[in-house]
Amino acid sequence: MFIKINPSWQKVLSTEFEKPYFESLISFVKNEYATKRCFPKGSEIFAAFDHCPFDKVKVVIIGQDPYHGLGQANGLCFSVNDGIAFPPSLINIFKEIQSDLMIPFLLSGNLERWADQGVLLLNATLTVRESEAGSHQNKGWETFTDAVIQKLSDEKEHVVFLLWGGFAKKKGAKIDRNKHYVLETGHPSPLSANRGLWFGNKHFSKTNFYLEGLGKEAIKW
Q: From edge to edge, which strands make up the β-sheet containing 160-164?
């Protein structure tokens, strides 16, 4: 099966695309997009990979579902298109960046600028039905994104994995921590952040300190 995805990922994931579960998944997704309104738009389903080639990955942030409101999702976890109101989790991410790095509150919620610098913004599930959170879960996306994380862990070194909340921590449980830098904290959602589990984690400055220590360029958050 040929999937339209960045060539570097096509090479790394080619065997995954041939597995029966993936063929079933794509069949399901095609039917959903043909019969219901789903997000992100079809051309952006693999946007996280297209903006961040395998050989350029320096940081991985793991999300769960795409946003399911009209115009929100653009294929990158936590990211929204320009002109869309910031969801609460994204507001809290920007607040932490503001306090951690002492920079003004960010004005654009479109995180393509991070992805283009080597931040893989990976949702566990890459598609969703409008207004139905979790509607495309347990159809095969999770198996696929587990394989993506495993490939990164096995075939790369010195990647920063940012695991926010219990779901992401579980998703990243098999990352080789002898080869990679793993930072864990609570989820940036208000429920977690208001309980003191998000703010003050300093993940953004810690990430840059680690990258600079390797002689790599820091992320312009």
A: 119-123, 59-63, 160-164, 181-185
